[in-house]
Amino acid sequence: MNRDQLIEYISGKFGDKIEPLKTGPVEPVFLLKDNSFLPEFCRTIKSDLTLQMDYLCNLAAVDTGEKFEIVYNVASVEKNIRFDFKLTMPFEGAEVDSVQDIWPAANWYEREMWELYGINIKNHANLTRFLLPDDWNQGNPMRKNWDAPDFIRMPEL
Amino acid sequence: MSTQGLRTEEFTVNMGPHHPSTHGVCRFVLTMDGEVIIKAEPVIGYLHRALEKICENRTWPQCIPVMDRFEYCTGMSTNMVFALAVEKLAAVEIPERAQYLRVIMLELNRIASHLIWYGTTALDLGAITPFLYAFREREDILDLFEMTCGQRLTYNYIRIGGVAKDIPPEFVPKCKKFLAEFDQRVDDYEGLLTENPIFIARNKNVGVLSKEMAVAYAVSGPSLRASGVRHDLRRDDPYGIYDRFQFNIPVFHNGDCYDRYKVRMQEMRESAKIVRQALEQMPEGDITARISAAFKAKAGEVYSRIENSRGEMGVYIQADGKSKKPMRVRMRGGSYNQLQVMPEIVKGHKIADVVAIMASLDIIMPEVDR
Question: pTM of the prediction?
Answer without folding.
Answer: 0.89
